[in-house]
C-alpha cells in the first residue's frame, strides 16, 4: 500500500462522519439559497416559484434608510468587536493572576451565571433599573434632588446601554474559552521565568499573552464573519420610537419587512447579503493574519 | 508560578474583581430574590434586592405544572444525548483536520468555514428532515445540530497545538491513530474537551426552535420552548392559581432560575479542568 | 486517572448513540373497533347531522398556544371528544409566535394536519391555492355554524359563494378603559365622560397624590406601542375623529396617519398630558402589556383592558397590595367634535380543513367542529368535564381544582368557539360578576369604531407599511414628548405618503372596492 495512503486512511475515516454531516445537513439545504432570487410560494416549491432576479436586493438597496441601517449595524458590531471582545480576554488574564483558588472559583461562577438569563428577562431588568419614572436609578436620582435621565429613550445612551447589557450577560461566558487556553500553558514556563527573575508583568507579557494569541486571532476572524449579526433579540427589545435612529439595524429591518409577513424569498436574500459581507471581511482578515504568521481559520 | 503576594498589585486586582462581581450579582439578585417574593411585592416595589416577605410559592407552582416538569425532563435527555453525539462527531473530525500533513485539509477546512457564513435556511432544512423521515423524532434535533463549525474550528486549533514529536513517539511505539487519539491526545486535552463539551451542552440546553419546528408533539419539547412561550407570548389568562399556589411574575422568574440551575451547579465541578495547566506541560517537560 | 477519563468519555459517547432515539412511537391504530354506544349517542343527540361514525378515525388538529403551552397527552376533554365522536384526536400545539413559520414549512413539504388554525396573512395568501376545504356546502347539514357564528363572520375574507374556513370569533368591542374608582373618590372627581375631563382626571392622578402616600409617584394613564401602532389608546384616537387605521372619507379610504386636521389636536392633547405627568413618562418603552402591569402596580390610574382579564386576574392582584382599590368603567370619552368610539377588533383568523384528505374524514372533522359549537360540546370545551372539572350542587355549579390544573378550556379559548362575548366566563362564576361584565360589554358595544379595511390584505401594504409606520410613529412620539413642534405632524404625514403611503392607500382602496362590489 502507498505509505501516504496508509498513514492517511484512518484520519479520513475519522473525518468522514463529520464530513457527511456537513454535506447532508449543511450543503444540501444550501440549494434553498435560490429563494433569494425567487418569489417563494410554498405550493410551487423551490423550482416552481417564479424567478424575480435581483428584485429583493433592489428593494433593500433602494430603501431610503438603507445607509442608516447599515451604519447602525456596523457601529454596534464595531462596539462589540473593539469594546466587548477584549473584555473576556482581560477577564481571563485577571482570573489567571488570582492565586486564591476560592476567590477565583467564586468570581468565575458569578460572572458565568447571566449567560443563562434570556434576553427577555435582561430587557425586563433593564427597564426596572433604567426607566425614567419608575426605574431604580432614576428614583434614586429623584430622591436626591437630581435631574432624571432618559436612559432608555435618549439615543445618545443607546450604544452604552447595548454594550453594558452585552458585558453583563456574556462577559463570563466569553471568558471560558480563553481560560481553557491558559489552562494548557505549561506551568514550567512560569517557573522558569520566575527563576530567571522575571516579574509578574514580564511573565504576563512573555508567557500569558503569547499563549492566547492563536485563539484570539481565530475568535476575532470568526467574529468578523458574523459582522452583520448584532443580536436581534437584544436590540429588538431595547428599541423604541425615540431611539430608532440609532437602534434600527439590519436584523430588525428584515424582521419587520420579511419575517413578520412570511416573505421567505426576501429574508433569504437578506441572509445572503449578510453572508457575503461577512465572507469578504473574513477572507480579508484571514489573509492579513497569515501575513503576520498566524495560522488563521483555514 | 511566582507565589509572592504583592500587597498593592493584588489589592487592586481583588478590588477590581469585587466590583465586577457586584456589577454582575446585583441585577441577577433581582431575578433570584423576586422569585421568592409574593405577587404583591413584585408589582409594588420596582427594583429591590431582598423581599420583605419570603415565599417558595413560585417554585411550588412550577412543581405542580405538568408541562413545565415534562419539558424539564425532556431537556435532560436532549442535552445529554445531543452533547454526546456532537462531541463524537466534533472530536474525531477536529482531530483529523488538525493534521497538517493531511491532503485535502485546506479544502475540508474551507468547506467547514463556509457553512459558518452561509446557511440554507429554515424551509430547505425542514424539507430535508421531512424527506429523511426524521420529523417527530429527537434525531432531527441531534443530527441537524451535530457539529457547530465554530466549536470544531476551536477544537481543531487546540489539537493542532500539540507537539508533533508526541505523535512520532507514539507511532514508534506502534500506536495507531485511533489509539493515539483515545489514549494520549484526548486525556491530555481534558481542559479543551471539557470546554467544548460545556459549550455544546449549553447550546443544546438552550435550543428551542428546532423542537418547535420538527416535533409535532409538544409533550416532547424541551424546557426552553416552554420558557420562551412563558416569557414572551401574551398571557391569555389560561394560567391561574392552582390550589394554594398563586400564579404571577415571580413564577416566571422562578422558571428562569430553575431552568438555569443545572448548568449553574455543574460549572464549579468543571472549573477544576480549566485551572489545571500541568497536563500538557508534564509531557513536554 | 487518564484511563478512567477516556473510559468515561467513550462510554458517554456509546450511551449517546444507543439511547438517544427512543422517541418515535408515532404508530397509532387507525381503526380500532368502534364502540357502538358512542356512535349511537351522536346520532341521537344531533338528529340533523347523520354522519356514519362507525369507523374510528385519527384526526390531527393544529392549534396555536400561548404562555403555558397546550395540553400534554390525553386531556379529559380530548377523551370525551374521542368517545363521543369515535375519533382519535391528536392536537399539535404551536406557539403563536412560530405558527406562520411552521405552517409555511408544512405547506412546503405538503404535510398539513387535517384541520388547523391560520392567521389572516396565510389564509388570504393560500385561500385560492386549493388547500382549504370549502365548507359552505356543509352548512345546511350542520346548522350549528350558522346558529352560533354569524353568516357575516363566515363571509369575512371569503369570496361570495365559497367559505374556505370557519372564523375564530373575537368580540369586536372587547377592550374597555378602566379607571381607579377609589382614586376618583379620594380626589372628589367623577369618571371622565369627555376628552377634556379625561385630561383633567389624568393630570389630577399625577399631581394630587391619589394614593395618599405623600409621594408624586403616580401618573394618569398609559398605553403601549407595538409594530408602529398604538395599543390601548383607541378611545382617545376615536374621540379626535381619527380612523381605526383606515377611515371612510368621501369615496375614499384614508389612513389615520394622514388625517392632519384631527392629528394635531390629538397630538397636542397627549403632549400636554405628558408634560403634566398625566401621561406615563415611560410610555415610549411600553411593550404590549406594560400599561396593564402598571395599572396592577398602582402607578397608573387609567388603562385599557379586556374586562374579563381585569376582573379575574388584574383586580385581585391589585387588591392584594391595595385592598381599597375599586374599578369603574370609562365610557369612551367624547371628543371635541362629539365623536367617541372604542377599538374594534377584526375577526381575521380562520379554522380550516385540509382539502387533500378524504371526504369521509373531512365530514367527520366538520362534525367535530359542529359538535364543539353545540350546547353539549361547547359546554365541554368551555367548562370541562362534569365531576372532573366542575360539579353541580343544589342547582349551582362549583369549579373543581382539576380545572385549574387541566385547563380544559384551551380549545375554546385558543382554537374554536361560539360567538360568545363572555367566552372566558364560566357557569360557576358569580352572577354579579357576569352581570357587571355584561354591563361593561353593553356599554362598549354602542361605540363600535370599525376599521373598514380590516378584511383587505394588500401586498403593497405588507411590503411598505412596516417601515413607514415605524418612522411615522417615531416622528409623532417626538412631538408628544416635546422634542419637536406639533406642526411636525404635517411633515410626518407627508413623509408617510411620499415614501409609499400613497401607493398603500391606492392599493387598499382598489382592493376594498373589489371586495365590496
From TrEMBL, chain A:
The chain crosses the membrane at residues 12-37, 74-98, 110-131, 204-222, 264-285. It comes from Cohnella fermenti. PROSITE patterns: ABC_TM1 (PS50928). Keywords: Membrane, Transmembrane, Transmembrane helix, Transport. One of its GO terms (biological process) is transmembrane transport. Residues 70-285 form the ABC transmembrane type-1 domain. It is a multi-pass membrane protein. It is found in: Cell membrane; Membrane. It holds the Pfam family BPD_transp_1. One of its GO terms (cellular component) is plasma membrane. This is Sugar ABC transporter permease. Belongs to the binding-protein-dependent transport system permease family.
TrEMBL record, chain B:
GO terms for cellular component: plasma membrane. GO terms for biological process: transmembrane transport. It is found in: Cell membrane. It comes from the Bacteria. Its main location: membrane. Residues 72-270 form the ABC transmembrane type-1 domain. Belongs to the binding-protein-dependent transport system permease family. This is Carbohydrate ABC transporter permease. The lineage of its organism: Bacteria, Bacillati, Bacillota, Bacilli, Bacillales.
From TrEMBL, chain C:
It comes from Cohnella fermenti. Keywords: Cell membrane, Lipoprotein, Membrane, Palmitate, Signal. PANTHER family: ARABINOSE-BINDING PROTEIN-RELATED, POLYGALACTURONAN_RHAMNOGALACTURONAN-BINDING PROTEIN YTCQ. Residues 1-20 form the signal peptide. InterPro entries: Bact_solute-bd_prot1, SBP. This is Extracellular solute-binding protein.
Amino acid at each position: 500500500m502507498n505509505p501516504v495512503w496508509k498513514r492517511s486512511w484512518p484520519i479520513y475515516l475519522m473525518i468522514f462522519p463529520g464530513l457527511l454531516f456537513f454535506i447532508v445537513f449543511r450543503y444540501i439545504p444550501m440549494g434553498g439559497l435560490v429563494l433569494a432570487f425567487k418569489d417563494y410560494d410554498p405550493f410551487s416549491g423551490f423550482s416552481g416559484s417564479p424567478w424575480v432576479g435581483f428584485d429583493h436586493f433592489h428593494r433593500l438597496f433602494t430603501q431610503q434608510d438603507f445607509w442608516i441601517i447599515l451604519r447602525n449595524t456596523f457601529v454596534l458590531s464595531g462596539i462589540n468587536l473593539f469594546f466587548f471582545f477584549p473584555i473576556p480576554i482581560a477577564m481571563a488574564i485577571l482570573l489567571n493572576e488570582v492565586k486564591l483558588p476560592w476567590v477565583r472559583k467564586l468570581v468565575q461562577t458569578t460572572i458565568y451565571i447571566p449567560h443563562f438569563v434570556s434576553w427577555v428577562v435582561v430587557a425586563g431588568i433593564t427597564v426596572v433599573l433604567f426607566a425614567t419614572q419608575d426605574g431604580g436609578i432614576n428614583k434614586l436620582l429623584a430622591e436626591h434632588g437630581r435631574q432624571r435621565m432618559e436612559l432608555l429613550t435618549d439615543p445618545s445612551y443607546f450604544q452604552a446601554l447595548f454594550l453594558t447589557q452585552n458585558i453583563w450577560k456574556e462577559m463570563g461566558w466569553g471568558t471560558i474559552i480563553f481560560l481553557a487556553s491558559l489552562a494548557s500553558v505549561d506551568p514550567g514556563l512560569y517557573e522558569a521565568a520566575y527563576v530567571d527573575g522575571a516579574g509578574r508583568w514580564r511573565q504576563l507579557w512573555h508567557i500569558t499573552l503569547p499563549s492566547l494569541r492563536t485563539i484570539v486571532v481565530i475568535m476575532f476572524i470568526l467574529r468578523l464573519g458574523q459582522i452583520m449579526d448584532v443580536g436581534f433579540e437584544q436590540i429588538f427589545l431595547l428599541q423604541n420610537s425615540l431611539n430608532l435612529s440609532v437602534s434600527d439595524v439590519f436584523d430588525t429591518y428584515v424582521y419587520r419587512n420579511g419575517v413578520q409577513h412570511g416573505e421567505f424569498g426576501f429574508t433569504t436574500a437578506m441572509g445572503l447579503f449578510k453572508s457575503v459581507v461577512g465572507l469578504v471581511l473574513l477572507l480579508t482578515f484571514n489573509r492579513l493574519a497569515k501575513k503576520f504568521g498566524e495560522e488563521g481559520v483555514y | 508560578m511566582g507565589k509572592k503576594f504583592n500587597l498593592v498589585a493584588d489589592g487592586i486586582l481583588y478590588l477590581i474583581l469585587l466590583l465586577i462581581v457586584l456589577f454582575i450579582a446585583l441585577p441577577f439578585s433581582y431575578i433570584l430574590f423576586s422569585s421568592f417574593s409574593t405577587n404583591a411585592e413584585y408589582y409594588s416595589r420596582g427594583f429591590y434586592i431582598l423581599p420583605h416577605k419570603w415565599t417558595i410559592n413560585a417554585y411550588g407552582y412550577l412543581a405542580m405544572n405538568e408541562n413545565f416538569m415534562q419539558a424539564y425532563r425532556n431537556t435532560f435527555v436532549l442535552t445529554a444525548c445531543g452533547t454526546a453525539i456532537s462531541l463524537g462527531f466534533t472530536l474525531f473530525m477536529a482531530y483529523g483536520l488538525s493534521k497538517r500533513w493531511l491532503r485535502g485539509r485546506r479544502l475540508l477546512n474551507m468547506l467547514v468555514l463556509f457553512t459558518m457564513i452561509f446557511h440554507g435556511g429554515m424551509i430547505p432544512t425542514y424539507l430535508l428532515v421531512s424527506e429523511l423521515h426524521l420529523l417527530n423524532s429527537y434525531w432531527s434535533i441531534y443530527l441537524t445540530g451535530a457539529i457547530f463549525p465554530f466549536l470544531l474550528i476551536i477544537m481543531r486549533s487546540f489539537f493542532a497545538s500539540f507537539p508533533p514529536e508526541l505523535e512520532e513517539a507514539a507511532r514508534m511505539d506502534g500506536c495507531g491513530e485511533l489509539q493515539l487519539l483515545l489514549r494520549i491526545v484526548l486525556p491530555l486535552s481534558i481542559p479543551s474537551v471539557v470546554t467544548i463539551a460545556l459549550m455544546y451542552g449549553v447550546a443544546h440546553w438552550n435550543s428551542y426552535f428546532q423542537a418547535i419546528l420538527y416535533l409535532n408533539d409538544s409533550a416532547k419539547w424541551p424546557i426552553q420552548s416552554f420558557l420562551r412561550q412563558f416569557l414572551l407570548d401574551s398571557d391569555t389568562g389560561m394560567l391561574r392559581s392552582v390550589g394554594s399556589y398563586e400564579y404571577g411574575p415571580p413564577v416566571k422568574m422562578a422558571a428562569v432560575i430553575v431552568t438555569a440551575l443545572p448548568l449553574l451547579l455543574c460549572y464549579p465541578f468543571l472549573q477544576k479542568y480549566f485551572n489545571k495547566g500541568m497536563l500538557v506541560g508534564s509531557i513536554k517537560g | 486517572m487518564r484511563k478512567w477519563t477516556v473510559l468515561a468519555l467513550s462510554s458517554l459517547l456509546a450511551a449517546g448513540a444507543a439511547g438517544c432515539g427512543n422517541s418515535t412511537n408515532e404508530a397509532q391504530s387507525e381503526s380500532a373497533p368502534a364502540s357502538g354506544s358512542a356512535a349511537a349517542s351522536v346520532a341521537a343527540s344531533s338528529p340533523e347531522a347523520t354522519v356514519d361514525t362507525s369507523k374510528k378515525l385519527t384526526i390531527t388538529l393544529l392549534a396555536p398556544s400561548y404562555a403555558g403551552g397546550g395540553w400534554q397527552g390525553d386531556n379529559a376533554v380530548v377523551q370525551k371528544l374521542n368517545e363521543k365522536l369515535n375519533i382519535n384526536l391528536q392536537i399539535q400545539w404551536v406557539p403563536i409566535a412560530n405558527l406562520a413559520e411552521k405552517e409555511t414549512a408544512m405547506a412546503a413539504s405538503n404535510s398539513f394536519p387535517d384541520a388547523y388554525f391560520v392567521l389572516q396573512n396565510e389564509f388570504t395568501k393560500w385561500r385560492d391555492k386549493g388547500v382549504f376545504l370549502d365548507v359552505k356546502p356543509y352548512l345546511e347539514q350542520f346548522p350549528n355554524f350558522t346558529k352560533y357564528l354569524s353568516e357575516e363572520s363566515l363571509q369575512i375574507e371569503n369570496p361570495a359563494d365559497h367559505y374556505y374556513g370557519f372564523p375564530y370569533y373575537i368580540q369586536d368591542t372587547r377592550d374597555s378603559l378602566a379607571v381607579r374608582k377609589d382614586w376618583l373618590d379620594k380626589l372628589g372627581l367623577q369618571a371622565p365622560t369627555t376628552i377634556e375631563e379625561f385630561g383633567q382626571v389624568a393630570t389630577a392622578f399625577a399631581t394630587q397624590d391619589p394614593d395618599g402616600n405623600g409621594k408624586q409617584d403616580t401618573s394618569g394613564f398609559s398605553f403601549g406601542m407595538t409594530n408602529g401602532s398604538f395599543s390601548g389608546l383607541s378611545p382617545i384616537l376615536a374621540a379626535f375623529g381619527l380612523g381605526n387605521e383606515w377611515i371612510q372619507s368621501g369615496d375614499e379610504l384614508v389612513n389615520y396617519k394622514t388625517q392632519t386636521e384631527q392629528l394635531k389636536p390629538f397630538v397636542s392633547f397627549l403632549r400636554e398630558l405628558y408634560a403634566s405627568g398625566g401621561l406615563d413618562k415611560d410610555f415610549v418603552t411600553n411593550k404590549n402589556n406594560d400599561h396593564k402591569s402598571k395599572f396592577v402596580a398602582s402607578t397608573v390610574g387609567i388603562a385599557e383592558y379586556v374586562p374579563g382579564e381585569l376582573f379575574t386576574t388584574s383586580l385581585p392582584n391589585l387588591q392584594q397590595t391595595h385592598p381599597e382599590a375599586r374599578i369603574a368603567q370609562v365610557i369612551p370619552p367624547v371628543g371635541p367634535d362629539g365623536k367617541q368610539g372604542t377599538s374594534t377588533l377584526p375577526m381575521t383568523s380562520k379554522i380550516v380543513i385540509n382539502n387533500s384528505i378524504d371526504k369521509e374524514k373531512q365530514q367527520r372533522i366538520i362534525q367535530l367542529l359542529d359538535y364543539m359549537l353545540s350546547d353539549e360540546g361547547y359546554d365541554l370545551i368551555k367548562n370541562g368535564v362534569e365531576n372532573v372539572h366542575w360539579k353541580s350542587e343544589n342547582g349551582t355549579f362549583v369549579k373543581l381544582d382539576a380545572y385549574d390544573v387541566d385547563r380544559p378550556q384551551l380549545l375554546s379559548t385558543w382554537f374554536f368557539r361560539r360567538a360568545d362575548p363572555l367566552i372566558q366566563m364560566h357557569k360557576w362564576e358569580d352572577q354579579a360578576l357576569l352581570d357587571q361584565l355584561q354591563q361593561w360589554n353593553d356599554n362598549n358595544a354602542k361605540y363600535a369604531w370599525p376599521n373598514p379595511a380590516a378584511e383587505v390584505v394588500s401586498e403593497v401594504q405588507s411590503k411598505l407599511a412596516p417601515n413607514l409606520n415605524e418612522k411615522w410613529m417615531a416622528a409623532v412620539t417626538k412631538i408628544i414628548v416635546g422634542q419637536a413642534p406639533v406642526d411636525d405632524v404635517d411633515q410626518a404625514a407627508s413623509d408617510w405618503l411620499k415614501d409609499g403611503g400613497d401607493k398603500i392607500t391606492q392599493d387598499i382602496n382598489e382592493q376594498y372596492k373589489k371586495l365590496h362590489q
